[in-house]
Design brief:
single chain; 336 residues; mainly beta; Porin; 14-stranded antiparallel barrel; 9% helix; 51% strand
Length: 336
């Protein structure tokens, strides 16, 4: 049975990897709706996004591998957070997961994200030079529903359906001496994520595969060409070093994570992450990402406290950039 599952996961990895890379060798940085590619949770970011095979993310799994929420122990978990991104761009995200009957019927999740790109001054060129057309504020958002199920004590699956829209606001398509013709550009699409997670049975070693942002091609109103979404395929391994060191995980946990990433619009990369957790409360995180020109290391910290059946956690991630201002990510988690 174990070999059949491993063979199935390997086949999925091969097929998706082939579809993600076929014909795209000359299409680097040529996808749209890039906001769907930004990691939204501070814990994930602090570990260098190497969280595909982590089985203890809870509600954070809505923004990672959806299969990772299948073994949620709390009845309800919720999260909200903010990202202070580059160029004064702000991301806001949140989600909630519900595990009725201790997850015997699976776990259901709802998620949202909103992106505010800030204010811009519109200009057009005419016979007199450049003329301002006013302030415009592009934005984007996505709403999703997720379902995950632990099929047995080793194998979990999960999938998400999201509706994503990018509001590029009104664009000028025709200029005359007496009139300006505008049209709104709002590309939108249904977007699908799906993943699997497998406990190998070798201590805490887990394996997972995850496909993110699978969608049809999108065509703008007046464009003759279509563009693709940032489809990404990830394969990951996770292992808690406390098993090898024979440490009590309730006292000291040393979580290691490795992801191999194949994005549609960029070169392949490797993500590495580590989390040191003390007394199931204080966590210190670090990560490394290869293949990135603008940043390569991440760091973070988190604190979780449980009391009388309730839990609350606060996470922070710091990403130093080489060109733009450094990125800060904040998340708050609740559990009942």
């Amino acid at each position: 049975m174990k070999m059949k599952i491993i063979t199935l996961l390997s086949l999925i990895a091969f097929l998706v990897n082939s579809s993600a890379t076929a014909g795209d060798a000359k299409k680097l940085a040529q996808t749209g709706m890039k906001f769907l590619q930004v990691s939204l949770d501070a814990k994930m970011a602090g570990m260098g996004d190497a969280t595909t095979a982590l089985d203890n993310l809870g509600v954070s799994g809505l923004f990672s591998n959806p299969a990772s929420i299948a073994r949620q122990t709390n009845f309800i978990e919720a999260t909200t957070g903010q990202i202070r991104w580059i160029a004064d761009i702000n991301y806001y995200a949140g989600g909630i997961t519900i595990a009725p009957e201790n997850g015997n019927y699976g776990v259901i999740g709802l998620s949202f994200m909103f992106v505010n790109y800030g204010d811009f001054i519109g200009t057009i060129r005419n016979n007199q030079g450049y003329v301002e057309t006013g302030i415009f504020n592009p934005n984007a958002y996505a709403f999703g529903i997720t379902y995950a199920k632990a099929l047995n004590d080793k194998f979990s699956i999960g999938g998400s359906v999201k509706y994503a829209l990018q509001n590029l606001t009104a664009g000028i398509v025709n200029i005359s001496d007496v009139d300006i013709t505008k049209t709104n550009y709002k590309p939108n699409s249904l977007v699908f994520d799906f993943g699997v997670l497998y406990h190998t049975g070798i201590q805490s070693l887990d394996f997972a595969a995850y496909v993110k942002n699978f969608s049809k091609d999108i065509q703008l109103e007046r464009s003759q060409e279509k563009f693709q979404l940032p489809l990404t395929f990830r394969v990951g391994f996770a292992y808690n070093l406390s098993d090898m060191l024979e440490l009590d995980k309730n006292d000291y946990s040393i979580q290691l994570a490795f992801d191999s990433v194949v994005p549609r619009d960029n070169v392949e990369e490797v993500d590495l992450g580590v989390e040191f957790k003390f007394m199931n409360s204080l966590a210190i995180r670090g990560g490394y990402l290869s293949g990135k020109d603008e940043y390569s290391v991440t760091g973070g910290i988190g604190f979780t406290q449980s009391y009388a059946g309730y839990s609350i956690g606060v996470d922070y991630a710091y990403i130093p950039w080489t060109v733009f201002a450094d990125v800060h990510k904040f998340s708050i988690h609740f559990g009942i």
